[in-house]
Design goal:
Elements (H helix, E strand, L loop, with lengths): L18 H7 L4 E2 L3 E3 L4 E6 L2 E7 L5 H27 L5 H14 L9 H49 L5 H15 L5 H50 L5 H18 L4 H48 L7 H18 L4 H28 L2 H31 L2 H26 L3
Antiparallel strand pairs: 1-2, 2-3, 3-4
Helix pairs in contact: 2-3, 2-4, 3-4, 4-5, 4-6, 6-7, 6-8, 8-9, 8-10, 9-10, 11-12
Length: 436
């Protein structure tokens, strides 16, 4: 079925309504709150301004005609409802929402539909204040985002400048890369402020990159210098690896190791190979030395057994009772000790400590005897005895005179003096007897 004025008839032409037929039809055949249909199929919509014809539907019943134009309204109402939902949900920007409202509102100027057209237009108009609120909120949000962006960009610049002054060559470059990615995601500020911050940020990155390149260039020179040094040390180490001069060569290898550590790192592509070769030369020498020492220790084991037997003889001399006999025995033991030869390294200290203890004990007794027989000390002791004896004799003579005169004060002084001198005399006599 078609509605006149909107859909073509089967023959491709509009079907006019005959006046006679309309008169015969009389009053409207169908009506609703928002519209009605005349007998000739003309459909009207009711608005606050009165009725307005929206089209004809001559080939169907009045009910079908009214339903057709009601569905048209429902289609418009659905479009308005969808727009309301999108606007309230913030799915459209204020400008997009305004433009969409204009497009829908244009369809509601004189729509060929039956329904509450005025109410539908009012619903569109009601979205205007909401869009205004959203527009204000968006301005506030943008201002806040810009301020947050300004603060964050200032922080990024400060951190980048700090990195540019530092020496964290490994982590610094990664951090600056992350800061750059973060910068790209931040909103732009007003041109002058944004350009000024970007200039500082870019300058910090450039400064860091320049210093980093300079550092690694200098490091490369140092590594190349270390390579030359280590190649020289390696050459000497390999030349010493088959040496059998265990003592001097061991010392030289220790010096080479110190020089190796002090040289620093060589370029990565050669460092590990140089070290492995240097260590192999070390291992070859010290392995041969340890094997030779182990073999030598087997030979020295018999010498150690001889020296343990000599220690039994030597330690039997203690404590010393006859110094001359002990000295004679010690000389014989000492000669046999030296003749016994070297012992294993792990026993050397303990054996030497025990034999030295015996030697020191004999020497201590000998030194004590010499001190007691020292002629000079004996003479000094005799001289002191003589002086004390003469002093005592003088004091005794003076004491006799004082007693004869009855001078009590003088008597007490002389008696005290005499007692003190006699005590010293006893001590001196005892000391002198040690030299006898």
């Amino acid at each position: 079925m078609t509605a006149q004025g909107d859909f073509p008839a089967e023959n491709g032409q509009s079907q006019p309504v005959r006046a006679g037929d309309a008169a015969e039809a009389g009053a409207s055949a169908a009506s609703s709150r928002w519209g009605r249909v005349e007998q000739d199929g003309t459909v009207y919509v009711r608005t606050s301004d009165g009725e307005r014809a929206v089209g004809q539907y001559p080939e169907g019943s009045p009910e079908e005609a009214l339903a057709f134009f009601t569905r048209r309204f429902e289609s418009l109402e659905f479009e308005v409802q969808l727009l309301e939902q999108r606007v309230r949900a913030g799915a459209l920007t204020p400008d997009e929402a305004t433009e969409s409202i204009k497009q829908v509102a244009a369809q509601l100027v004189e729509p060929n539909a039956v329904g509450d057209v005025v109410g539908l237009s009012a619903r569109l108009d009601a979205l205007g204040p909401l869009i205004g609120v959203q527009r204000s909120k968006r301005r506030e949000d943008r201002a806040r985002r810009l301020e947050d962006s300004r603060t964050r960009k200032q922080e990024i610049v400060a951190e980048a400048e700090k990195i540019s002054r530092g020496k964290d060559w490994r982590n610094g470059v990664n951090r600056l890369r992350d800061l750059l990615e973060e910068w790209k995601g931040l909103p732009r500020l007003e041109k002058m402020a944004d350009d000024e911050l970007w200039h500082r940020f870019s300058g910090a990155r450039t400064t860091y990159t320049r210093r980093r390149k300079s550092h690694f260039a200098e490091l490369g020179e140092k590594r190349e210098g270390a390579r030359v040094i280590k190649e020289r040390l390696l050459k000497e180490a390999e030349s010493l690896s088959d040496s059998t001069e265990w003592g001097p060569t061991s010392s030289r290898f220790r010096a080479l190791m110190s020089d190796w550590k002090a040289a620093g790192a060589a370029p990565r592509e050669v460092e590990e190979d140089l070290w492995q070769r240097f260590r192999a030369a070390q291992d070859a020498f010290f392995g041969a030395r340890d094997a030779a020492n182990a073999e030598q220790d087997k030979e020295f084991a018999a010498n150690a057994e001889k020296k343990r037997e000599l220690l039994v003889e030597a330690e039997a001399l203690l404590p010393v009772r006859d110094l001359d006999a002990a000295k004679r025995a010690w000389r014989d033991i000492s000669e046999r000790w030296d003749a016994a030869g070297k012992v294993p390294r792990e026993e050397m200290k303990s054996l030497e400590a025990r034999i030295r203890k015996v030697e020191q004990a004999i020497r201590s007794v000998e030194d004590d005897k010499w001190k007691r027989s020292d002629p000079e000390k004996s003479a000094r002791a005799d001289d002191m005895l003589g002086q004390l004896e003469r002093a005592i004799a003088g004091i005794e003579a003076d004491l006799g005179k004082a007693r004869s005169s009855g001078d009590m004060r003088k008597i007490r002084e002389l008696e005290e003096n005499l007692a003190s001198r006699q005590q010293f005399l006893e001590m001196a006599q005892k000391a002198a007897s040690d030299f006898g």
